[in-house]
């Protein structure tokens, strides 16, 4: 019986190998025919006027195509048949081996095991292989590209950052624009110096940011969250991106915070925005989504309002709410979380800024009760100082080696950037929502009760105050522009002072509710009011 | 595959030539249920394998299970229900935070768990790659022992590169360099078919070349098997030291009886131990310096480098596709820098690991182990069961059973 089975198996082996060879040859032939046929229609045919010739060519070509598809189908089936016969061959071979137990034809092996006779050569074999591996690695290293430094055109160095207005209160949150050519006169009634004025469909309390002639805003309502991109030259809406529409769980926010209070940030890759539901988005400058991420809906009784900030490839998000506070460092290219630092501080409404001294960068965040600095690269906490209280809405300012923070129920504090040591405090005039701005010698604040004030930057003495804002005060943060400072109160009253002597240069009524901070770009002022977006320039100046 | 009659959204054109539109064929989507069913099948195969190896001592059982695995995991599931590749998913999940299916985690850990108890059972019967090599192994030429030892240093390198590549989010190298997936799917481009053909030819004359000298998951199982509680016993009827099993073993993984008498140069041993950190440092430095070259694996890096070299869209479909996507080229360059940074960090670890591994391998050669009887190597034995067929005690046991019946 066993012999019969063996004979059968041998027969199957021979038959299957023969059939495999035949099918293999047929398949090779079919594949070569397939590769030689071009089934595409010849475009030159259209040039021929002789219709009969064209028709007969087409007839021949049709037959060629039929051959092509026929052979293609045959190859499709043939490969399964070939595989089947080959498997049959090997299976029958192995079954024959199982039945035919005989000593395999290998060279005799001596009875020496892993003993000293084999130790030395094995040792050298491993050493030799190890050297070979190391040598291969060294050869790889010779062919490695040299250390890749970030190309200069990618790194947004100071020149590029300061040519744009990429974040809340300007580059790095500095609240400064270096120019003495900004107009101090315009009239919304007559249109004097108003280059354009456009309506913004959905309101938000975030401020405009600008990059390469694109102005970005976001808007938020219970029905719609949206990102807008306007053209700097014409004011035309280039595109809008609807983030959320219609159904969905949205947080409860107050009317003076809204769903889009946080200002976006922008770089050469695009715009980055956050909304009150914790949704973060990155879009490119054409309005295409690059990535999005949900940080979870924050429990914030006014609504999330901390603006975004960026340094090179890292996006910083201050996400403090009543359940927990977190600093996120996110890879701006792909949205990966680089670090997530637990702040354990409760809710805040301030925005981070970047500061630098002696080549060391500091990411500064303020909340109740601490001002904390972090390494932007790693999120490592550098120092913290307990100096704030209440609901902190005013963001920090870095000016001339000192850090300034304020809260309206306590005081304004100057700290050393490196050590966090408190240098001075004062409580004469304090901001609520507005953040300070400064010159070399003076720190300016706008209160929420109609007062503007200036402190000596070094001593903290109150050196000036102005009492002509509306009783609603200012939510907008002042910006130092060259040797001037621009304030806007909630009623849309723009006050421009000379920082040399704090004299009033100009007072302009915009007659609209304005809670946002203006942007400055190419010597233009970009102001967002409750309903509109303005571009204001000195007519006849070489802005463009 | 399932044949569907797709309902048209728009009416079909009236073909006057009598053309008949072919039936549309759609592949079924693998549901989570199919994934868990595969796990159940894997577990059953391994349970039966343990029975076959430890109770039945039967090469036929092992071979049959192996062929079932080839059919199911190989041809039916197209080679993609694979513990070998699952290590990449684990790496990606750990280092990139990517969510992977729970079935992938099970595929990775179940064979390891079984190995801890019973040795490399997975390799013997459940792995489709090994099963295919087992099927087509016709003549098992023995490699010189020194070559054998040297080639066994390749799997940890491959494992390191695969973990690195998956861990930085590049690609799955094990899948890209799988020589048998083309056979399971009966398709492939010329390069991959050539590569498969090479391994097929090697497998005809060398026993399981992929398993022994390349498989990265096999390396993990080798190391795990050193700790296994139980291991294949050639016979439990008392070895008579006839050497037949050793002659039968195509992988040369059976140790003869020996008393372990050898002179150990303890000074050399101490030097080797002290050189472990030095070797690790050298490895990490070589890894760091070669990271730029290794990063060339990544498609985004390749694309960025092509563009920087001046390759134009007309010369490259990939570049054309990138430009047509509307993406910003700056983004690609920034991504390249990001990927290179990750490769640099990963290559340092890879070099460190390989540096340590080489030294530990050298030290392990001094391990004095005596064998009272012929024993299969704990880490190298793949549990193919060929030794059972040639052990006279096992053969006689079968004959005794037949006589009883």
List keywords for this structure.
heterodimer, A: five-stranded mixed β-sheet, four-stranded antiparallel β-sheet, disordered C terminus, B: two-stranded antiparallel sheet
Work out the strand percent of chain B: under 5%
Q: Give me the secondary-structure category of chain A.
A: alpha+beta
**Can you summarize the main beta sheet of chain B?**
2 strands, antiparallel
Uncertain residue segments of chain A: 104-116, 540-544
Give the terminus-to-terminus CA distance of chain B: 47 Å
Tell me, what's the shape of chain B? globular
Poorly predicted ranges of chain B (pLDDT <50, ≥5 residues)?
1-6
As a whole number of angstroms, the C-alpha radius of gyration of chain B is: 25 Å
Rg of chain A over CA atoms, rounded to whole Å, is 37 Å
Order of helices and strands of chain B: EEHHHHHHHHHHHHHHEHHHHEHH
Number of extended strands of chain B: 4
Oligomeric nature of the chains? heterodimer
Molecular structure report:
The complex is a heterodimer of chains A (544) and B (405). By secondary structure, chain A is α+β, with helices and mostly antiparallel strands. In chain A, 22% of the residues lie in helices and 31% in strands. In chain A, the strands form 8 sheets. A 5-stranded mixed β-sheet of chain A has the order 1-27-28-29-30, with no helix packed on it. A 4-stranded antiparallel β-sheet of chain A has the order 2-33-32-31, with no helix packed on it. The longest helix of chain A is centred in the first third of the chain and has 49 residues, at 51-99. Chain A is elongated. Residues 104-116 and 540-544 of chain A have low confidence and may be disordered. Chain B is mainly alpha-helical and 405 residues long. Chain B has helices spanning 32-56, 59-76, 83-96, 102-118, 121-126, 128-136, 145-151, 154-167, 173-176, 181-185, 190-205, 209-213, 216-225, 244-248, 266-294, 299-309, 317-324, 329-364, 386-390, 392-404; strands spanning 2-4, 24-26, 254-255, 375-376. In chain B, the strands form 2 sheets. Chain B has a two-stranded antiparallel ribbon. In chain B, helix 2 packs across helix 6 (128-136). Chain B is globular and about 80 Å long. Chains A and B meet through helix 2 and helix 3 of A and helix 2, helix 6, helix 7, helix 14 and helix 15 of B.
């Amino acid at each position: 019986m066993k012999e019969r089975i063996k004979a059968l198996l041998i027969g199957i082996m021979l038959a299957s190998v023969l059939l495999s060879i035949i099918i293999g040859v047929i398949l090779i032939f079919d594949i070569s025919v397939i590769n030689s046929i071009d089934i595409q229609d010849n475009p030159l045919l259209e040039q021929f006027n002789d219709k009969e010739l064209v028709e007969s060519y087409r007839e021949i070509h049709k037959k060629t195509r039929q051959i092509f598809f026929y052979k293609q189908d045959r190859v499709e089936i043939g490969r399964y048949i070939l595989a089947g016969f080959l498997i049959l061959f090997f299976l029958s071979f192995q079954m024959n081996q199982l039945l035919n137990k005989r000593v395999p034809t290998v060279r005799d092996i001596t009875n020496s095991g892993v003993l000293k006779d084999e130790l030395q050569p094995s040792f050298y074999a491993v050493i030799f292989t190890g050297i070979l591996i190391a040598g291969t690695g060294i050869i790889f290293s010779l062919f490695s590209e040299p250390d890749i430094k970030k190309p200069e055109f990618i790194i947004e160095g100071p020149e590029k950052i300061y040519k744009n207005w990429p974040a809340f209160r300007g580059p790095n949150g500095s609240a400064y624009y270096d120019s003495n050519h900004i107009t101090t006169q315009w009239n919304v009634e007559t249109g004097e110096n108003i280059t354009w004025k456009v309506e913004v469909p959905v309101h938000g309390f975030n401020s405009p940011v600008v990059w390469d002639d694109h102005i970005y805003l976001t808007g938020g309502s219970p029905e719609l969250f949206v990102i807008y991109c306007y053209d700097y030259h014409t004011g035309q809406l280039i595109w809008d991106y609807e983030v959320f529409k219609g159904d969905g769980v949205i947080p409860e926010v107050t009317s003076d915070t809204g769903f889009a209070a946080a200002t976006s940030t922008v770089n050469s890759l695009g715009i980055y925005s956050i909304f009150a539901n914790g949704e973060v988005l990155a879009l490119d400058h054409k309005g295409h989504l690059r990535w999005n991420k949900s940080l979870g809906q924050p429990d914030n009784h006014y609504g999330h309002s901390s603006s975004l900030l960026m340094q090179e490839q890292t996006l910083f998000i201050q996400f403090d709410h009543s359940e927990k506070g977190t600093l996120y460092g996110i890879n701006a290219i792909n949205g990966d979380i680089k670090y997530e630092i637990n702040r354990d501080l409760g809710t805040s409404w301030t925005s981070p800024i970047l500061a630098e001294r002696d080549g060391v960068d500091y990411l500064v965040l303020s909340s109740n009760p601490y001002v904390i600095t972090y390494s932007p690269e790693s999120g490592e906490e550098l120092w913290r100082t307990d100096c704030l209280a209440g609901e902190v809405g005013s963001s920090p300012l870095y000016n001339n080696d000192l850090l300034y923070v304020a809260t309206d129920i306590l005081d304004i504090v100057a700290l050393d950037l490196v050590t966090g040591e408190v240098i001075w405090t004062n409580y004469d005039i304090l901001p609520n929502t507005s953040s300070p701005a400064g010159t070399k010698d003076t720190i300016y604040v706008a209160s929420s009760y109609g007062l503007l004030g200036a402190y000596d930057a070094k001593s903290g003495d109150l050196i000036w105050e102005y009492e002509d804002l509306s009783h609603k005060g200012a939510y907008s943060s002042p910006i130092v522009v060259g040797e001037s400072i621009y304030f806007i109160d909630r009623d849309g009253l723009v006050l421009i002072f000379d920082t040399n002597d704090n004299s009033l240069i100009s007072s302009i009524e915009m007659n609209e509710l304005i809670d946002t901070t203006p942007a400055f770009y190419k010597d233009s002022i970009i102001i967002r009011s409750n309903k509109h977006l303005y571009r204001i320039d000195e007519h006849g100046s070489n802005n463009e | 595959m399932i044949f569907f009659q797709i309902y048209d959204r728009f009416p079909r054109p009236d073909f006057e030539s009598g053309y008949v539109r072919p039936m549309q064929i759609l592949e079924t989507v693998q549901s989570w249920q199919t994934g868990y069913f595969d796990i159940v099948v894997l577990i059953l195969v391994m349970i039966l394998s343990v029975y076959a190896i430890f109770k039945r001592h039967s090469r036929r059982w092992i071979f049959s299970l192996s062929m079932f695995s080839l059919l199911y995991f190989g041809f039916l599931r197209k080679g993609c229900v694979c513990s070998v590749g699952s290590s990449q998913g684990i790496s990606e999940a750990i280092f990139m935070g990517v969510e992977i299916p729970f079935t992938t985690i099970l595929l990775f850990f179940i064979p390891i768990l079984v190995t801890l108890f019973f040795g490399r059972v997975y390799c013997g019967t459940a792995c489709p790659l090994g099963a295919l090599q087992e099927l087509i192994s016709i003549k098992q030429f023995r490699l010189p022992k020194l070559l054998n030892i040297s080639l066994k240093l390749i799997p940890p390198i491959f494992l390191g590169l695969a973990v690195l590549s998956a861990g930085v989010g590049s690609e799955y190298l094990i899948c890209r360099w799988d020589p048998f997936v083309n056979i399971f799917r009966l398709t492939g481009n010329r390069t991959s078919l050539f590569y498969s053909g090479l391994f097929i030819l090697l497998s005809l004359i060398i026993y399981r070349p992929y398993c022994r000298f390349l498989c990265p998951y096999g390396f993990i199982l080798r190391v795990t098997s050193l700790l296994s509680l139980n291991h294949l016993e050639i016979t439990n009827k008392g070895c008579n030291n006839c050497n037949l099993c050793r002659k039968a073993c195509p992988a040369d993984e059976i140790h003869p009886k020996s008393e372990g008498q050898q002179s150990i140069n303890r000074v050399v041993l101490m030097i080797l131990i002290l050189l472990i950190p030095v070797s690790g440092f050298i490895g990490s430095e070589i890894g760091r310096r070669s990271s730029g070259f290794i990063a060339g694996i990544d498609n985004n890096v390749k694309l960025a480098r092509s563009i920087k070299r001046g390759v134009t869209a007309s010369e490259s479909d990939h570049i054309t596709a990138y430009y047509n996507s509307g993406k910003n080229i700056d983004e690609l360059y920034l991504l390249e820098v990001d990927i290179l940074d990750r490769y640099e960090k990963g290559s340092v670890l890879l070099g460190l690991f390989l540096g340590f591994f080489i030294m530990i391998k050298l030290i392990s050669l001094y391990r004095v182990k005596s064998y009272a009887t012929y024993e299969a190597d704990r880490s190298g034995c793949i549990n193919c069961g060929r030794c059972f067929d040639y052990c006279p005690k096992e053969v006689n046991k079968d004959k005794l059973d037949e006589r009883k019946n």
